[in-house]
Prior knowledge:
5-stranded parallel beta sheet, ABC transporter transmembrane region fold, Rossmann fold, 556 residues, 4-stranded antiparallel beta sheet, alpha/beta
Amino acid sequence: MRKLIVNTIRKEKYKFILITIISIFVWVYGLLFPxxxxxxxxxxxxxxxxxxxxxxxxxxxxxxxLNMVLSYVLNMQMAKLKLKFTYQIIYDVTEHLKRVFILxxxxxxxxxxxxxxxxxxxxxxxxxxxxYLRFFTNLGTILFSFYMLFTINFKIFxxxxxxxxFFLILxxxxxxxxxxxxxxLKESQNKFFTSLxxxxxxxxxxxxxxSFNQSSKLLNSTFxxxxxxxxNANRVAHLFYSLDGIIxxxxxxxxxxxxSKSILDGHMTIGQFTIILSYYSMIIECIKYYLNFGKSYQxxxxxxxxxxxxxxxxxxxxxxxxxxxxxxxxxNDINYSYTYKNKKxxxxxxxxxxxxEKDKIYIIRGHNGSGKSTLIxxxxxxxxxxxxxxxxxxxxxIKEIDLYELRKRxxxxxxxxxxxxxxxxxxxxxxxxxxxxxxxxxKNQIKELGLMGLFYNNHFDLDKFWFKKISELSGGENQRIAxxxxxxxxxxLLILDEPSSALDSDSVNExxxxxxxxxxxxxxxxxxxxxxxxxxxxxxxxxxxxxxxSLLKTSS
Length: 556
């Protein structure tokens, strides 16, 4: 995890160095300003020379204007850097999770997971950028301020020095409760926003079933827990700040008494007293910073551990061998069962053997829950946990193959309800420019593969959809576009899940002709109950779940 943060910084190292240099100048200005102010006051009270006074004023004005400009640049650059660094952490964690076992995601709701990653990444980067330099400059401020107090008034210096242990004891006493309640609060926030999002995600189901009260109860339940945990976390934080305030008030009172007495005795000038007040305030602010740093550290430690927990999830195995074309897929002695709450479920697939070969069309049929989707996931290598037996492509064990590259180049899967990750229909086909020339290129491919009848007919005209948003498509339109995307890929292995479910009769006939026309050099697997598609298949795999011995029976 630390390596991830370091690599993130390296990508923006020049901006990071610039921000560091500007921050140091702003810090030095803040450190010298009380001294310049005190010099101005002493020169005014002693009426030494107007020229000296003017020079000090000009210096203060010049430095203040420069400080304002640099502070603006610093804030703007810091805001940009914070967003970039946060996104980089989000991106890296997301890319890591894309390569873990797919069943990992069954334990997390998408909204919860995405919000957790965003909030924790933001907390982590905000804490780092706010403190990576300030932690050391504040230490420098304390040492410089103590030096100034020591040279002006030794009693006040000792009084200030003695105050530090009180603040350290306070933090040590409260650090465990601060961490504990911040962890509980973050989890409660994520769960509440997950529940809130589900009110909109499942709005159709809520309205269809009239389950307004039930959905509201779930939302109220998560909010109730959030409220309770928020109150407890704030109670601990308020106790922390209250005790801090009491200690500060007592010490300031002592400083005011000692300083006033020294001025009256003639041992200190008014300018020197303003220096003491300014630098003592700086010391208090720095000590408070370190106390808040301790509190923020405990909060950020929660975020760090939660990000690290996700980043430490073991990646799935992926081989290195590249396959140019898929000639066969063999499944030998396949046994598979899911695991729920660390407990293995009964086998959904047991003692399954089959070989799929190119130039053939296969139909997989079976009732709901018989394992059709699980079988497809095993074939394309998505399910490797809890799997025994061998899956081979061209007689090469799937464990040796680069599956990411294989799926990218050689496999196309059309789900019954496709999730197309794209903006417009045209951009789905990897064309960044929505131009007529790109449309022409795609249409040439459609003609070449004999797909015109399916995508240009009385029921569907592809030209009306090129610039349409994917999110605006109906279920049937979405499925048809997904079929086109799969066919234009010209895969060695084509898998279609209920491809005719949203098509009219004429389009089903066109699909049948297209699949038969393009079956050469392709393994085509169709999961369907539609007997119209059976006319073109070479083999039918009947999947029946025998509750006695959990055996998948196959027949051709």
